[in-house]
Amino acid sequence: MDRNNEGQILKRQLQDTGQQKWGFVIYRCTYGDDKSWERFVNIVNERVRTSMDFYGTLELMENLDWRIQDDPAVLDGASKEVVRQNFREWAAAAAAAASADDGQPEEKKSLFVPRFTYCIHVDAESLKSVVENAPQPPAPDLEPVGYVNLIDADSTIDEGEGDEDGIEDSTQHDDVGWMKVAVDGLAPRTYSLLGESGGWEICYVPPPDIAVP
């Protein structure tokens, strides 16, 4: 296996963990412009498809499941901590169901799965960065400009401590429990890196900078 082929790395991870589906859970936390949201989802999928085609693993697109959470009553304007708590509940139930249904040996069930540990928070700022400010596909976003907020569900940071408004100088902070991640490279690269030991530490860049794993 080519160690630099992120698509093949992802395929190996899915085989090792016995997972059929892959992809982050996406929380929509901004409403009022459905056309921009639809465009956002299309751009994310197009970026991933382009990467998968490059790595020769387009077949994995069939197993991609973002599991978008779209409930304005609960999520409109939701903070990262609210999303983290919501995701923890979802992940616990989903991981238990997957473990019970996959028929895999116990040693495979214990392996790390990014889908159950990290989720995506999309607010108005990140939505605009992708659909308005960043270069649009098929042009690559090399700077990058378009990003999403990636939340670590295992973080124990206190509510509000990791909010961007409270970060006066991000260089003085260690891990704040979330980071801005470039959409161009979100998958398979970021997803597969987070599936390896120490992946979060490898990828992590404190906000407001954008991580480009």
* Mean pLDDT over all positions: 89
Bin the helical content: 40-55%
The main sheet orders its strands as 1-2-3-4-5
Percentage of β-strand residues: 5-15%
Number of strands: 5
Q: Which segments are poorly predicted (pLDDT under 50) over 5 or more consecutive residues?
A: 105-110
What's the overall geometry? globular
Characteristic terms for this protein:
213 residues; alpha/beta; five-stranded mixed β-sheet; 5 strands
Report on this structure.
It is globular, with a radius of gyration of 17 Å. The two termini are 20 Å apart. It has a 5-stranded mixed sheet. It is built from 8 helices and 5 strands, in the order αβααααβαββααβ. It has helices at 6-17, 34-55, 72-75, 80-101, 106-109, 124-133, 186-194, 199-203; strands at 25-28, 118-122, 147-152, 178-182, 210-211. It is α/β, with parallel strands linked by helices.
Give the helix/strand layout.
Blueprint: H1 6-17, E1 25-28, H2 34-55, H3 72-75, H4 80-101, H5 106-109, E2 118-122, H6 124-133, E3 147-152, E4 178-182, H7 186-194, H8 199-203, E5 210-211
Parallel strand pairs: 1-2, 4-5
Antiparallel strand pairs: 2-3, 3-4
Brief sketch in words of this structure:
By secondary structure, the chain is of the alpha/beta class. Helix content is 41%, strand content 10%.
